Task: inverse folding
């Protein structure tokens, strides 16, 4: 199974650290966060990886090159203009059209068991599987509601005024998709996984499932979260 990693984000909330560096190249424990993701993939036997780039792609390519140093094979799909997370997948369709594939957010530190997630995805013959976990910041997270079979039935972001009862189960930046997902993404326009694709698939009652794990999974998209991730790494909370 191939792995598609979204590595083109601007990292606006991480400025000034990202003024001259892509956010996936920010270091945790002496290594870029993207390197940690690549190591996780290799640990689970996933060595065919496509990096989706945009902002300062040269700094990513000069560090990782073809991936040989990291015992993987890397290809690159470059967005000249930002197309959104789903639009970036569509742009790389030539790499992804023949198999199921992972989509990983490049700014997430995780130790999820990718092998178990693959098994879950195939057992359910899913169009898509998303990793979910309990979140301690539900009001700025994409929350999910699932049925008794772990099928996604609702995808939402609560507002601060929302006092209804909901479980703090959040979608993380780890997904598996069947190659048929490419048929649901329009070409040549901005299209988001969270705002466009996933809500539309739920509306169409497509087979989207949630894989729950109590693994470590945290994005380092803000300075505060980056600090927490670095502390967690030093405390050995992210080992796999």
Result:
């Amino acid at each position: 199974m191939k792995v598609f990693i979204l590595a083109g984000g601007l990292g606006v909330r991480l400025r000034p650290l990202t003024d001259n560096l892509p956010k996936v190249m920010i270091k945790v424990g002496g290594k870029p966060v993207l390197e940690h993701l690549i190591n996780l993939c290799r640990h689970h036997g996933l060595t065919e990886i496509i990096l989706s780039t945009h902002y300062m792609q040269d700094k990513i390519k000069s560090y990782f090159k073809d991936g040989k140093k990291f015992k993987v094979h890397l290809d690159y799909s470059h967005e000249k203009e930002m197309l959104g997370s789903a639009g970036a997948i569509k742009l790389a369709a030539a790499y992804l059209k023949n198999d199921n594939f992972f989509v990983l957010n490049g700014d997430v530190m995780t130790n999820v068991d990718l092998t178990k997630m693959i098994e879950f995805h195939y057992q359910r013959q899913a169009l898509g599987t998303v990793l979910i976990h309990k979140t301690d910041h539900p009001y700025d997270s994409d929350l999910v509601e699932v049925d008794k079979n772990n099928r996604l039935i609702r995808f939402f972001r609560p507002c601060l005024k929302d006092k209804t009862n909901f479980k703090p189960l959040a979608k993380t930046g780890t997904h598996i998709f069947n190659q048929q997902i490419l048929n649901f993404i329009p070409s040549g326009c901005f299209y988001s996984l969270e705002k466009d694709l996933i809500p539309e698939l739920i509306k169409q009652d497509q087979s989207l499932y949630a894989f729950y794990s109590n693994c470590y999974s945290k994005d380092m998209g803000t300075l505060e979260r980056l600090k927490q991730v670095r502390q967690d790494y030093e405390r050995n909370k992210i080992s796999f």
Observations:
- The helical segments are 33-43, 57-64, 84-91, 93-96, 114-123, 193-203, 223-234.
- The chain has a mean pLDDT of 91.
- The first strand starts at residue 2 and ends at 6.
- Residues 2-130+172-234 form a domain with the Spore Coat Polysaccharide Biosynthesis Protein SpsA; Chain A fold (CATH 3.90.550.10).
